[in-house]
Design goal:
The chain has about 800 residues and is an alpha+beta fold. It contains 26 helices and 29 strands. Strand 21 and strand 22 form a beta hairpin. InterPro entries: ATPase-cat-bd, ATPase_P-typ_cyto_dom_N, ATPase_P-typ_P_site, ATPase_P-typ_TM_dom_sf, ATPase_P-typ_transduc_dom_A_sf, ATPase_P-type_domA, HAD-like_sf, HAD_sf.
């Protein structure tokens, strides 16, 4: 309770203590009393201080010198620091549309109702584009328009609800987890010790072991029980009271409301019976109920930690400092968060790369297991990209920084995992809504039970109502979905699979059609030039190869890779280079005597100038000017080792497999014959792929796997889409699932894990509903005592949690099934 706030001198602003304007200024309600302030600014700040329960600012500030008093509490000043652009660069990302996004860590969330409340409050702020809250991981994934709303305003909005939110820092997560674990362990310890003592007394009293004792001795035992139960109620049960108060304040009841009512009611009635030495006492129920609930919350905390540790460990791999070359070529130590694009850093053997960048050294052996799960070092050549968080193995290297902090691939992976943890499948959303509605119905049912029993048997009315509150609390239902979803995300992360959208857990069940790209998906993507033919005598073969190499330098398509070593492209001068995704490259080629348009690409692209090129059966890359064909190349690659067995498993699981590729019909049919794929759609431009998948979707949901730039639109269109860690950025952004280990067999693990999670999720919800619905008539009819109700409710919650923990167990990946 806040004591009376000091009043300013008459005619002065309550907030800043400056004189009020002649018209009396404005009014603001602080501590339930109307106060006069001088301007809109003071009115807004005073209202914020009141809403966020920071009234101690007015109670204890020094007002002896009005010109030097602070105008903001320290808490709000600290939050405003997060609006600084330099600080935000360390934990925010900016999209192409100008939206900023970050992950907040929230203290004090206990259930889905807390998450719902925070989401609703944030989404009311103008400029907030999206707010997704996950009560399981206690994180908020938020994106906003920085011109319309400040980050500090969102942090203050959350603080006004009674929660503490700060930008998520992976390095602090382990420390925070230890603090919260100690928080629960202390309360569990006190509740456990008290429960043992009170239960021994209760057993003796209930089972007649001390029945021959006189009433005075019985009351003495009651007083001993009261002594042990009091710290349990006042200290151990605090988390439930705080959560219940917040939910009542927000007018969104959660499961801690009936829990708190039951605990306070049972303790109050038992204490009253002890004082008057008449009636029934249930101190053992208070202690045991609190102990079992805390154990459940503690196990839930451990499950959360296991689920989010993978993402957190990624970011913690980054070093704190880096060795940067200055303009004189000398090394200087610098904090990693101060690195900028264009800096050159040196990394010694055994050290972790601090940023993404281009390798300037001739070659390097890089351990990328923290990204891909593959422990064998990868050989990287000069000019290739190396990634932050990977380990330099053999020799000192120099790296040109291209991306730092939130722009690195590692940070983006962690962001994808956060997004998946924040998303909720439709079944999980329905379970949360059902749990929230169940609390309201439970309170109504408890009131009716008390009313009816007051007429039937008044002496039992209170205890029967208490048993109803305890036994029917929907704790298990509230845990059913979040624990299962978090479990499958953890399971897939360990398998190197990242979900961007948890709706795919349900959507995969309905997919019967699998559409796969060929190049880089079914094949290894390691290309070589198997054959070529020069079609003109006007230019030397070396000049033609140099032209092809120069053009292909502008492409990210896997087919362009072998042209890098074909010839020296430096002697070729090109202008107005245009890349046509899925088709080829066009440019202006400058020679000594003339400039002319030139193209390199698939035969269909070249056929717009030279229709006769379609007769070149062995060609899949053709080089031509407007006036003549210059050369054709046959670029081939090999099948992935794991593709045949994986496709066989998918057929057995009931999938119809279709190949969809931009490669030539001849090459596509050759690969399809090797893999026994009956339906092939080849020589497709991106718009052709998109139209084909839309047509398939008229017959049912489509699962698409691809990895190229030209696959981006069709991956976004498919009902479920998957790509690989090596895929183009556009493909990774469009896909629902990213297989970081680049194994095609990841689709088998994906289907097996999502199938198991669906079964466990349904089992959890089914059990929770059966228990809650089944216990209602038994409790209402008075057949359940409060301590039995406490055991039943707690065990049902622990059963749901234990069932979800099966997803954390590493077991052999089974073949996918329906």
């Amino acid at each position: 309770m806040v004591s009376a706030l000091p009043h300013p001198p008459a005619g002065h602003c309550f907030h800043c203590l400056q004189p009020l304007p002649e018209d009396g200024g404005y009014q603001v309600t602080v501590a339930d009393e109307s106060r006069a302030v001088c301007c809109y600014g003071c009115q807004a700040v005073a209202q914020t201080i009141n809403d966020q329960k920071l009234l101690h600012f007015y109670q204890f500030r020094d007002t002896s010198n009005p010109l030097q008093i602070p105008l903001l509490p320290e808490e709000l000043q600290q939050l405003e620091a997060y609006d600084q652009a330099e600080l935000q660069d360390q934990f925010t990302q900016t999209s192409a549309a100008g939206l900023k996004s970050t992950t907040l860590s929230v203290e004090g969330m206990t259930c889905a109702a807390c998450a719902w409340l925070i989401e609703q409050q944030l989404q009311r702020l103008k400029g907030v584009h999206k707010a997704q809250v996950n009560a399981t991981t206690e994180r908020v994934l938020i994106s906003w328009q920085p011109e319309q709303v400040k980050l500090s305003a969102m942090l203050q909005q959350i603080a006004g609800l009674g929660y503490r939110a700060l930008p998520f820092q992976a390095a602090m997560q382990e420390q925070d987890f230890k603090r919260r674990r100690r928080y629960f362990v202390r309360r569990i310890g006190i509740a456990g010790l008290a429960t043992m003592q009170v239960m021994m007394i209760a057993i003796a009293l209930y089972f007649g072991m001390v029945s021959e004792l006189d009433p005075t001795m019985r009351q003495f035992f009651w007083w001993i029980s009261l002594l042990f139960a009091t710290p349990v109620l006042l200290y151990s049960a605090q988390p439930f009271y705080m959560s219940a108060l917040r939910s009542i304040q927000a007018k969104q009841l959660n499961m801690d409301v009936p829990v708190s009512l039951a605990l306070l009611s049972a303790y109050g009635a038992s204490a009253y019976a002890t004082f008057i030495n008449h009636g029934e006492v249930y101190f053992e129920s208070v202690s045991m109920f609190t102990f079992l609930l805390l154990v459940g919350r503690y196990l839930e905390l451990l499950a959360k930690q296991r689920a989010i540790a993978t993402a957190a460990n990624l970011v913690k791999l980054l070093p704190a400092t880096a060795q940067r070359e200055n303009s004189d070529g000398q090394l200087e130590a610098i904090a990693v968060h101060k690195l900028k694009q264009g800096d050159i850093v040196r990394v010694l053997p055994g050290q972790t790369l601090p940023a993404d960048g281009e390798l300037l050294t001739a070659h390097a052996a890089i351990n990328e297991s923290m990204l891909t799960g593959e422990s064998v070092p990868v050989n990287r050549l000069q000019g290739e990209t190396v990634f932050a968080g990977t380990l330099n193995q053999t020799q000192p290297i120099r790296v040109l920084v291209q991306a730092t902090q939130q722009g690195t691939v590692m940070a983006k992976i962690a962001a994808l995992q956060d997004q998946a943890l924040a998303d909720k499948p439709k079944l999980a959303i329905q379970a949360e809504r059902l749990a929230n509605q169940f609390v309201k119905q439970l309170l109504i049912l408890a009131a009716l039970t008390f009313l009816v029993w007051s007429f039937v048997e008044p002496a039992e009315a209170f205890w029967v109502t208490l048993a109803v509150l305890v036994a029917t609390c929907p704790c298990a239902l509230a845990l059913a979905a979040p624990t299962a979803v978090t479990g499958v995300i953890h399971r897939l992360n360990k398998q190197g699979i990242i979900l961007r959208n948890t709706d795919v857990i349900e959507a995969l069940r309905d997919c019967r059609t699998l559409v796969v790209d060929k190049t880089g998906t079914l094949t290894s993507g390691k290309f070589s030039i198997a054959g070529k033919e020069y079609l003109t005598a006007q230019h030397a073969p070396a000049s033609i190869d140099s032209l092809a190499s120069a053009l292909e330098q502008h492409s990210e398509h896997p087919l362009a890779a072998p042209f890098a070593s074909l010839a020296n492209p430096e002697q070729i001068q090109l202008d107005e280079v245009k890349v046509e995704p899925g088709a080829g490259i066009e440019a202006i080629w400058h020679t000594e005597t003339v400039q002319q348009q030139v193209r390199i690409g698939n035969p269909r692209f070249i056929a717009q100038w030279h229709p006769e090129v379609l007769r070149l059966s062995d060609a899949n890359v053709v080089l031509a000017t407007r006036s003549e064909l210059l050369a054709w190349y046959q670029v081939t690659d090999t099948l992935r080792d794991d593709v045949p067995a994986t496709l066989a498993d998918l057929r057995q699981a009931g999938f119809e497999i279709i190949m969809l590729t931009g490669d030539s019909q001849r090459n596509a049919e050759r690969v399809a014959q090797q893999l026994d794929i009956a339906q092939v759609k080849a020589e497709c431009l991106p718009e052709d792929k998109l139209a084909f998948v839309r047509e398939l979707q008229q017959q049912g949901p489509v699962f698409m796997i691809g990895d190229g730039i030209n696959d981006g639109p069709v991956l976004a269109q498919a009902d479920v889409s998957m790509t690989f860690g090596h895929a183009a950025d556009l493909a990774r952004q469009a896909a629902d699932i990213v297989a970081m280990r680049n194994d095609f067999a990841a689709v088998t693990a994906l289907l097996a894990s999502t199938g198991k999670s669906r079964r466990i999720l349904k089992q959890n919800i089914t059990w929770a509903l059966l228990y809650n619905v089944g216990i209602i008539p038994v409790a209402v009819l008075g057949f359940v005592t409060p301590y039995i109700a406490a055991i039943g409710m707690s065990l049902s919650s622990l059963l749901v949690l234990a069932n979800s923990l099966r997803l954390y167990r590493s077991d052999t990946v089974k073949k996918p099934s329906r």
